[in-house]
Write a structure and sequence with these properties.
alpha/beta; Rossmann fold; seven-stranded mixed beta sheet; 13 helices; binds S-adenosylmethionine; Methyltransferase; Erg6_SMT_methyltransf; dimethylglycine N-methyltransferase activity; SAM-dependent_MTases_sf; Methyltransf_11
Length: 299
């Protein structure tokens, strides 16, 4: 089953931009790179998200700090990989951001980590943080795209990703690359922001514009793709209530820190955020988004 057939709703309209020709994929990657390498985005993630993990959190209580809840997501995902990781084994993190996940995995399991990420600006910060934490001997930060993973078949004991596939213009290809580089018996675990299966994509288009894509995947799309790639068993821990909490929390934090943000970030970007974040809150309130952890094993 192709991504076109299963990914949510209006792909017919979006086919020219989302079906993965090399040209459109390069455009998709350029847009993502430009987004993450902008000073505004970098400072926003630093001021509001803590500059370590940049993904949805799993909250113990509504007012828990975003950074603490985001760290819990890494812990839960790592639990799914625990049987596969130990000193001498290697995990690949796709779309590794500032390296919060890579450092956690290296620290907890003593394993080697390859952190693949499009943004060289983020990668420079990532390498500096690894050196500061004394983990640089375990973590290799590689600049590249998860649409074309620069490793051979069966290279990794595990592959993971936190909230990066939402930026992709060809999610079938990303999953097939992830499965290709896994050793037989290797584990794949990832989180992503998705649309509910019955959400029309046009309902989310203003919401997801900040991600540089027109549509999100759905849980059914990912489960079908993983099964088609021969990963088994495959499961999805549905943590959707946390994405609602997360965007309420993020919106409140952004408003509370508006003065700090305006001092450090361009006014247009702050205005855009204050207009966009409530759309995420509305979308979660209307039950239009899904979020959770996928896990599968290469046979
Ligand atoms: C929301 S951030 C998540 C970062 C990190 N996984 C975390 O949880 O802290 C999304 C990340 O995906 C990366 N990314 C997006 N498209 C990519 C691609 N085609 N190849 C590699 N990385 C990509 C971005 O550079 C960014 O670091």
């Amino acid at each position: 089953m192709s991504e076109k057939q299963t990914e949510n709703a209006t792909l017919t309209e979006n086919e020219t931009t989302l079906t993965g020709t090399e040209t459109t994929l390069a455009g998709n990657e350029d847009a993502t790179r430009t987004y993450y390498e902008s000073t505004d985005v970098d400072r926003f993630y630093d001021i509001v998200w803590g500059g370590e993990d940049i993904h949805t959190g799993i909250y113990e209580y509504d007012a828990e700090p975003v950074a603490d809840a985001s760290r819990r997501t890494v812990e839960r995902l790592a639990d799914r990989l625990a049987g596969r990781l130990s000193p001498g084994r290697t995990v690949l993190d796709l779309g590794s951001g500032y390296g919060g996940t890579a450092r956690y995995l290296a620290d907890r399991f003593g394993c080697d980590v390859v952190a693949l990420n499009l943004s060289e600006a983020q990668n420079e910060r990532h390498r500096a943080a690894n050196a500061k934490r004394g983990l640089d001997h375990l973590i290799e930060v590689v600049t590249g795209s998860f649409h074309e993973v620069p490793y051979g078949e069966g290279h990794f004991d595990a592959v993971c990703s936190l909230e990066a596939f939402c930026h992709s213009g060809d999610r079938s290809r990303v999953l097939s690359e992830a499965a290709r580089v896994l050793k037989p018996g290797g584990a794949l675990a990832f989180t992503d922001i998705m649309a509910a299966d019955d959400t029309p994509a046009e309902a989310l288009r203003p919401v997801v514009s900040r991600l540089g894509v027109d549509a999100l995947a759905t849980p059914t799309f990912y489960l079908d793709q993983l099964a088609e790639l021969g990963l088994a068993p495959v499961d999805f821990d549905d943590h959707t209530p946390h994405i609602a909490r997360h965007y309420v929390r993020l919106t409140a934090d952004t408003r509370a820190r508006e003065a700090d943000l305006r001092a450090a970030i361009s006014p247009a970007y702050v205005d855009g955020l204050l207009a966009n974040l409530p759309l995420w809150v509305d979308a979660t309130g209307a039950n239009r988004l899904r979020w959770g952890i996928f896990h599968g094993r290469r046979a």
